[in-house]
Amino acid sequence: MSQPQLPQSSDSALARAQTSPEAPAWMRGLYAGLFLYLFLSALNVMSGGLGMFGDESDWMERAFAYGENPFIALMGAVLVTVLVQSSSFTTALIVTLVAAGDMPLGTAVFAIMGANIGTAVTGVIVSLANIRIRRNFRRSFTAALLHDFFNLLTVAILFPLEWISGAMHEQGRGLLTRLANWLSDLIGLEEVANPNSPVRVITRPMVELFEWLTGLATPTVMAHGLFMAAMGLLLMFVSLVFMVQNLRGALLRRMDGLFRTYFFRTDIRSYLVGVFSTVMVQSSTITTSLMVPLAGAGVVPMRRVFPFMIGANLGTTVTSILAATANPVSAAMTVALFHVCFNLIGTAIWYPLRRLPVMLATWYGRLAANATRYAFAFLFLIFLILPVAGIVLTELLIIHG
Prior knowledge:
It is found in: Cell membrane. The chain crosses the membrane at residues 30-50, 71-99, 105-129, 141-161, 226-247, 268-292, 331-353, 373-399. The chain is mostly helical. It has one domain. It is built from 19 helices and no strands. 47% of the residues are buried.
């Protein structure tokens, strides 16, 4: 009688794990810390390179200059956040532009919505590191989609509500903007210095090293910034591949119980872990991207990923609050508080109705695992093709029509 055959990929991986000698747990812990450090450094190397390019070419300000139209403000913020890989950076920039009077409050709030969508691209990119292992890729891509669909569905409801209610208001302010403005009038925060992110402090040596190395090979500042960003992207992929491999080892099995029984035991704990971990590193891009390989490796149950993602979305609003208190203008604080209200209202809507985003993410994650072209189609369609097409069509049909 023939023996039943298990899936070849999982069989071969299991056989290698059983026959090959395992590294000690302390060594795997060191590997995990090293790969995490390289991953965090890569994000800041990319951000530094793109920021250098942006300062030289003034491209971000010009991208937002078309923000007089709410739809263009939304799409432009998606593109900017995708390029800089940080909604914290984008929202802080928006707050700064509003404080300086370079961006009207009525459209800055729509740019905040776009930043929320754009920040979810990193999780999708991170999930591609598991593309060769179907089961892990399905879980990691589904986890990334939970973040995407929460933001997309929230924007689908709040964008038209804010646009229509703003059109009927004499100052052009929508319902959420008026709520945020009322809250900003209640809080009168004094001006404080914007503290450095702890992640930026510990990764600064790596960023400076890459800045020096890439500067040797480039003739202009703009080329320097682009080359540095490309090296950061390469470092991110390399560190992620090794991080995922390390997570599937003995350290993962030892941490499994702790993650399941404590940090992600309930939805409220998962939500609070998402909030506070993002506050600590001041970047939802980092925390949500770290959750993707954890979910892909099976460390975190999928039902706990969604509350973690929406908690991370709230945690990232701290950066815009800090930017607003460093630029104490009423409009700037209103934009920052709008960011808070956007995520709180989105949570109030979609956590009770979480079956819808979870069902959509699970369905598309399974589809992408069976045919990876759907994963790339989602990545390029949502984060590149639709924003560019939206801006072009709006310019042609509405502004110049």
